[in-house]
Amino acid sequence: MIVLVAVVMLFVVGAMAALSIDVVTLYTARSEAQLAADAAALAAARVFANSGVTSDASRRTTRNARTLATTIATQVASQNVVGGRTLNTGEITVTFPNQGDPAFDTNPHVTVAVQRTDLPTFFSRIWGRTANTVGASATAEAYNPSDANALNGTTIPVAPICVKPWLLPNIDPTKNTTNPIFVTSTGAIWTQNPSLVDQGWPGPSNSDGLYAGCLFGDCSGGITPPAAGVYYPGAIDAADFPAPTQSLPSCSAGFNSYQLAIAGCVPLPITCGANSSINIDTTAYGTTRDADTVAAAECLINYTNAPGTSDSIDTATTRPPLQFVAGTQNQVAGAVGKNVMVSPSLVTIPVINTTTGVSPSNPVQVIGFLQVFLNPLATQALPYGSTSPNEIPATIINMAGCGTSATGQPILGNGASPVAVRLISPP
After folding, report:
1. Which residues neighbour 185 within 8 Å (Cβ) at sequence distance 6 or greater?
2. For 167, phi and psi rounded to 5 degrees?
3. Can you give the pLDDT at residue 242?
4. Is 99 helix (H, G, I), strand (E, B) or coil?
5. Secondary structure class of 23 (helix, strand, coil)
6. Torsions phi, psi of 238, nearest 5?
7. How far is the C-alpha of 339 from the C-alpha of 183, rounded, in Å?
8. Nearest to 308 by CA among 332, 329, 331, 278
């Protein structure tokens, strides 16, 4: 009986050891694989979100971004440890579900699957099992409400954070025209304009850069009618644009609240659609609004009054997808001169509902967002402008419209970008 019990106990102890070590190892590796897949899918979707392809009117350019998205997803996944080692590229698969459907060309999905077939075992080797297989998959979406609405007649609003207090009228900012950016009611991108992605102001039809409306940017004496590419300053208060107090760059020392809202990240999500309500700043400001704006923007984009110090748009690659090059003052070590996915020069601006020739009155309604790149060539000296030398060159990267009727819980997405990036259920 003692011998029999000893033999049985050997198998019992072995089974318990296999259960307590091998199974736990398997589940831990499964969790690591899921984290790797999630991170890679989100990174790939961010390529779509920040490269302008979801805002292209031709609805064809997402296929140009798939190669770049695949490369980024593979790089991110291969940096993750699963079961004690980093993944090999052969263990990572990137696919694009429903890529022939126009709805998915403008709101693209990307699925990343990772798998290890050689996860080592420990005590279960006594039964001849030397390796286990573990895997996971994740699907992410780059959601642009303007194209979603244009395709199916319904949309969910978005609510990015770190939005700059520059309220842009719904007028094509790149031209001297009255054409809108978005269809006011639906938020669809205005079809009678060519795509505004990769266009900017000043440009061939607009000699001015980004600067403030009203007299010297002071709207206390009255709000002027809207003009192309000219913004209204947003109210810096708790309900509209609360000035940030944390994680401010050192160059912001001495800035006023308006400048801090530019140089830092306004923590309040700004929503668009039916429930949007925001105010133009009508408090007395004086004649320094544009100069203050340029100074705060220079701090934001790491511009130090020398060519190449701030980030720029890569002009050497096929566009779209747009890519960005890190300047000499980029805060990421080792990024200088290399392509980057995000940049402090990439900012989001609200687009408000306006009527041509009519001065808006408070409160105004946000019907969409433009994501623009400030000082896109990085060689342009700031401040810019001949007649009013306190302007900022800007290039449009994304357009995301909600219109006046979008309702529902806003999608927060991936922070500052108006094209929300989110994990969704697997296809």
Report:
1. 403, 404, 405
2. -90, 105
3. 95
4. coil
5. helix
6. -65, -30
7. 34
8. 329
In which order are the strands placed within the sheet that holds 394-401? 200-201, 394-401, 366-374, 346-352, 166-169, 230-233, 211-212
Q: What is the distance between the alpha carbons of residues 168 and 200, in angstroms, rounded to a whole number? A: 14
Residue 18, token pair as written in the block = 């296999």
Q: Report CA-CA distances (Å) from 159 to 214, 251, 350.
A: 27, 28, 10
- Tokens linked to 203: 């440009």
The pTM score is 0.85
Cα dihedral 49/50/51/55 (nearest 10): 50
Residues 224 and 292 reside in one and the same domain: yes
Going by their DSSP bridges, the two strands 346-352 and 166-169 should be labelled as parallel
Q: In the listed set 95, 124, 142, which residue is the last one of a domain according to the structure?
A: 142
Q: Tokens 């923590």 map to which residue? A: 267
Reported as type and span, the H/E element at residue 393 is none
Angle 99-323-307 from CA coordinates, rounded to 5°: 170
pLDDT tens readout for residues 173-223: 988 778 899 989 888 888 666 678 888 998 877 778 899 999 889 999 999
In the beta sheet, which residues pair with residue 189?
A: 182
Q: Which of 367, 419, 373 is nearest to 180 (CA)?
A: 367
Residue 23 in this model has a pLDDT that exceeds 80: no
Q: Is 200 helix (H, G, I), strand (E, B) or coil?
A: strand
Tokens at residue 320, please?
Answer: 């779209």
Q: Which of 79, 169, 82 is nearest to 117 (CA)?
A: 82
Q: Collapsing DSSP states into helix, strand and coil, what is residue 116?
A: strand
Distance CA 278, CA 341 (A): 30
Same domain, 298 and 422: yes
Return the pLDDT at 246: 87
Amino acid in position 253: A
- Domain of residue 176 covers 144-427
Same domain, yes or no: 81 and 227: no
Regarding whether 189 and 117 lie in a shared domain, the answer is: no
